[in-house]
Amino acid sequence: MPPAIKAELLQEAVDTFQATGSNYAQAALILGIPRPTVQSRVEQARRRGITPRTADPNDPLQLKSQIKRLQSDLRDAQQERVDHAMIKHKIIGLTREVNDVVPPTWIMKAPKKEDSPGTPTVFLSDLHWAEVVDPKQINGVNEYNLDIANRRLQRLAEKTIRLCDILSPRFNYPGIVVALGGDLYSGNIHDELTATNEVNSMPAVLDLFGALCSFIDAMLLKFEYIFIPCVAGNHGRMTRKPWAKDRHATSFDWLTYCFLAKRFEDNKRVTFLIPDGPDAYYKIYNHRYILNHGDSFRAGDSTIGPFGPVMRGSLKKASRNSQINMEFDTMIIGHFHTELFTRRVIMNGSLVGYNEFAFRENFAFEPPAQQLWITHPVHGLTYRMPVLVDEPSSVEPPRRWVSVVL
């Protein structure tokens, strides 16, 4: 029978185990003995009725344990930053910062030409690239696949330029803001999407990357400068549930943004803002915007839709931001595939349009569309020009209405 362990050693083991928050590995590291030995001593101490002593903040053992924990936390934090920096700078090859940028001067100063309407913003979100919408399952009101998605994105570019041309034939714009609001991909977050997506996530990334490059190139042909703020959505995530921590680094949306930033890195006319958090903050002149995907707001029902929860959510976000000196004038979100335009909240439609989920939940019909509006240096939000991106279709002749006059 092995000799009984001294009470002092057992007391030391339970005290250290308590001080490390019941972490056998850290306790073993502090005591300099194997983890199984610590576990054995703690169990023996419990059988002999030895309990942890009251913690003294000045006790050397407590201080040593605290130092070890802080060193471990610091290593984890440094490793996290190295991982994110390595992805952007070492793997993707970015040399310019994209998560904390100085706003370009053209977006802050009022246009020199007095007849300029201001700066347009086109909002791209909820593309759901690779999702397949079967028209037979939704009474033929919509259809979607990769071929249609590419045509709709091209049509969005063409119509954005056309609408801006109608408003200002001499194209007196200092530049354009292309806001990317997440849910670029259908993703594999539900079994039904995994089973019915046209292609898997990686081929979808390659296909959409090329399409978005073409979209930005089209904007560069007409606008002198482009500012591109970006946030990740929830559909493109690589985790079973959305993460609060490292949300950006677990999303194909964020990866695509970094690829795009690398693609246009040498073009000084293009500026990206890709924050590590869920919100992107920027100003157009003096108008303060916050860009968020919108999935943190809880949806309503088939009667009120998302309007009530979104308006309540915007007030909560405004209250939170006022406490950290980050007040905003307008919040822009996607996620709900529903158009809403107010001075306080701008909500985007979608490129995918009406799908089987919306049909099953009896949501109101929304045609595929993306928001386009103008920010004026004095008046703020002015012209709103939603861009309908569906195929042109023949319109049925109006039915005759009968009026009866007595």
What's the structural blueprint in terms of helices and strands?
Layout: H1 7-19, H2 24-31, H3 35-47, H4 60-91, H5 105-108, E1 119-124, H6 146-167, E2 176-180, H7 191-196, H8 201-222, E3 226-229, H9 252-263, E4 270-273, E5 280-284, E6 287-291, H10 307-322, E7 330-333, E8 340-341, E9 345-347, H11 356-360, E10 369-370, E11 372-376, E12 380-384, E13 387-388
Parallel strand pairs: 1-2, 2-3, 3-4, 6-7, 7-9
Antiparallel strand pairs: 1-11, 5-6, 8-9, 10-13, 11-12
Helix pairs in contact: 1-2, 1-3, 2-3, 6-8, 8-9
Search tags:
single chain, 406 residues, alpha/beta, six-stranded mixed β-sheet, five-stranded mixed β-sheet, 11 helices, 13% strand
Brief digest:
The chain has 406 residues and is α/β, with parallel strands linked by helices. It has helices at 7-19, 24-31, 35-47, 60-91, 105-108, 146-167, 191-196, 201-222, 252-263, 307-322, 356-360, and strands at residues 119-124, 176-180, 226-229, 270-273, 280-284, 287-291, 330-333, 340-341, 345-347, 369-370, 372-376, 380-384, 387-388.
Count all strands and give the number.
13
- Specify Rg, calculated over alpha carbons: 28 Å
Number of helices: 11
Task: Please state roughly what percent of the residues sit in beta strands, choosing from under 5%, 5-15%, 15-25%, 25-35%, 35-45% or over 45%.
Answer: 5-15%
Order of strands across the widest beta sheet?
4-3-2-1-11-12
What is the arithmetic mean of pLDDT? Answer: 84
